[in-house]
Amino acid sequence: MLERLGRGMSACDLRSNMPAINWNFGIATALPSPLSLSRASAALYQNSSGEWLSASAHQPRLGYLFGFGPGLVREETVSALNNYARPSSGAVNDHFLGSTSAQLLGRSITSINTGVTSAPTHNLNNGAYVWDIDHDISGTAELALSGGTADTDPKSIMVHYKHITGSAVTVYLKDYSGSTISIGTLGTSGSWELSRFDDVAAGNSNAHYIVLDIPEGTQIQIALVNLQDSKYCTSPIDCSEAPAARTADTISDGSADWYNAGAGTFALSYWDWAADHANDFQSYLYIGDGGNTNRIELAKNVNPEGEALVRIRLSNTTQFDYDLSALSVVNGFTNVAIAYMQDDFAFAYNNSIIATDISGTPPSNMSGGFGLGSRPNGLIPASMVIAKLSYYNTRLENNILESL
Predict the structure, then answer these.
(1) Who has greater pLDDT, 6 or 255?
(2) For a FRET experiment, which of 32, 132, 253, 297 has its CA 20 to 30 Å from that of 183?
(3) Domain 79-244 sits in which CATH superfamily?
């Protein structure tokens, strides 16, 4: 049932326009039938307190990510390039490059503290283990995490840490030729903080790795760190001893028989924070024939040629095509609704009508494909936290679209 009355909606509106589908992932404890999720690897996500949890392979992640949620976390395949995300195994000199990289003037400044139960990783295996870097002698310590990659693709870095004393720690991307790229500094609040650095230009094709510049008199604890082969940070990949990948979440609907070709309304609410793939667009919702011929699609405009965010096609002929490049939201919440019937299409964006009274014919033969965060034919998926998807088998009035 609907959880609330929308703005401008009466009880009569609700009784006459009950949704055929109302998947509210923000309050769900499991995926509603007939949805299923496949993901070949385990994956991390967060609870409302920002603590990291692990979902096993094919288990839905119902929670939060980077403060977005609650909802269903859906991400694409991404690799972590450093060898160790956490000090869960091995020795300090395995985690940092070179036998002396965790030392300064012959003294060890980095150790593994195994009893930090306040660490945001404490729900994971060996989650109370953190790197404890205590630079209590003169000079500047440069610690390089093991692992890296050799290409020029943009990278992203995240560090979950707690600054205890001293000055701010600087994060660099460095290569084996000595070239250094300054990324940014970590906070000094004294609480556990998660810093994300997106769209880091590698600069050359040499192998790159993360370097932490620790000023004299500084102590910091690190619970988790990732160098990701992605322009924007996704959920951390819990690698140990070698780089690793988290595979994509694929959400499927085994029936896909609820689409009404004559008239209908879709409403989708989600958070997103990334727009990778500079020459294509990311698909958030796809209902269609399994290809591009007949479809309704909501997608993010990241194409410099101006790909539409909302598209309806019948027999590969555009019926409705709306470019929302000026309105696309990154690092925020988006609520979209699209309603259709013969010669009467309308679209609402964040509870405001953007387009209405558009002529066109709704597509037919739409039982071949469903994608929530992806397309069945393998085009670019989206990374997002999905709050809710509703479907009505009638074309709702415009004032109701603004309330969904």
Answers:
(1) 255
(2) 132
(3) Galactose-binding domain-like (2.60.120.260)
pLDDT tens digits along 308-348: 577 788 888 888 887 665 555 555 788 889 999 999 999 89
Closest CA to 196 of 223, 227, 159, 161: 159
For residue range 241-266, list pLDDT tens digits in order: 889 999 999 998 866 667 777 899 99
Closest by CA to 175, choosing from 148, 198, 145, 141, is 148
Q: At 365, is the secondary structure helix, strand, or coil?
A: coil
Scanning the structure block, which residue is given the tokens 């996500």?
45
CATH of 11-77+249-401, one of 2.60.120.200, 2.60.40.1270, 2.60.40.10, 1.20.1740.10: 2.60.120.200
User: Quick one: tokens of 251?
Assistant: 């959400």
Query: Which residues in 238-278 belong to E strands, given as ranges?
Result: 244-246, 250-253, 263-272
Spell out the residues 6+ positions from residue 174 whose beta carbon is closer than 8 angstroms to its own: 144, 180, 181, 208, 209, 210, 211
Output the pLDDT for position 90.
74
pTM of the entire predicted model: 0.89
Position 129, amino acid:
Y
Residue 357 contacts residue 335 (beta carbons within 8 Å):
no
CA angle 292, 294, 295 (to 5 degrees): 80
- Asked if residue 404 lies in contact with residue 6, where contact means CB atoms within 8 angstroms, the answer is yes
Q: Which pLDDT score, from 0 to 100, does residue 66 have?
A: 94
pLDDT of residue 314: 84
What residues contact 72, with CB distance under 8 A and at least 6 apart? Answer: 25, 28, 31, 60, 61, 62, 251, 385, 386
d(CA 47, CA 278): 31
Segments in 128-226 forming alpha helices (H)? none
Is residue 363 within 8 A of residue 264, CB to CB? The reply is: no
Q: Which two tokens stand for residue 378?
A: 């393998």
